[in-house]
Amino acid sequence: MIAKLTGRLDEAGADWAVIDVRGVGYLVHCSSKTLSALGVAGDECTVFTDLQVSENAMRLLGFATAEERDWFRLLTQVQGVGGKVALAILSALTTGELQQACAAGDAAQVARAQGVGPKLAGRIVNELKDKAGALPGAPAGVPLAAISQLGSASADAVSALQNLGFKPAVATSAVAHAQAELGEGAGLNDLVRVALKRAAG
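Below the sequence we write its predicted C-alpha cells.
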C-alpha cells in the first residue's frame, strides 16, 4: 500500500492533484485545505495517502498531514460517511476544529460541510465523541475552549503562520496562546507577531 508520496506538484483541480514522483504521475483526491498546502504547479510537496479499493475502482486520497489522514480514516468508519463526504468535512474544518466539535458534541459545526445534514452530523459527533481525544487535532497544552473561541483575526493569523511553513498544530497552538496573552480584541498584526515568536521559539 502507498503510504506517502514525495515529488513535484504537476497539476491540480477542484478536489484532486497530480504528484509527479520521478516521472510517474499519481492522481490523488484531496481536501481543499490539503490542496492549498501543496502550493502551485512545480512546487515540491509531500502527501500522506490512503488507498480506497472498491469493486470497480481504486482511488488514492492525499493529505497534507498524517493527522488529516487519520481523521479521514476515522470519519469513513461512520455509517453514511464515504470518501467524498469525509473530504468535504476536512475541507470545511481543520482537524483541531473537528476534534473540538466531536469532543463537545457540536453537530452544527460538522454540518457546515457540504453534503452533511443535521442527522449525519449528529451521528458523526456521537460516534466519534469518545475517540476525539485519541487522535491529534487540537494542540497539546491548549484548552479546547481556547481553540473554539478563535475569532476571524486568529484564524487569519493561523493561516499566516501556516503560509510561513509552520505545521497546523504548531500555528494553532501559538495563536491560541497569543490570543490568551493579548486578549480577545487583539488585531491580526499583533497576533502574528506574538504567535511567531512562540512558534519559532
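The beta strands are 4-12, 16-21, 24-30, 44-53, 58-63.
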